[in-house]
Amino acid sequence: MNKQSWPLKRIVFWLGLSIVVVSGVVLIWINFLKPPNGLAIGLISVALLFVGVVVLIIAGILYWLDDGI
After folding, report:
1. Of 17, 23, 39, 69, which one has the greatest count of Cβ atoms within 10 A?
2. Would you say 55 and 40 are in contact if contact means Cβ atoms under 8 Å apart?
3. Does the pTM exceed 0.70?
């Protein structure tokens, strides 16, 4: 395992995981507790959820390749 790539993989993984968790909580809050008057907040949260999933996929690819950057 390349020692220099390990912190980057860990940072990418936790960044993606935190984005997914935060956007998921916001989506649950918007949809179940306080429905929005418009679509902007919901669309932004869904976009953040997709960004978080993509970042997690990138982290998975980095772990899978195990080459490092």
Report:
1. 23
2. no
3. no
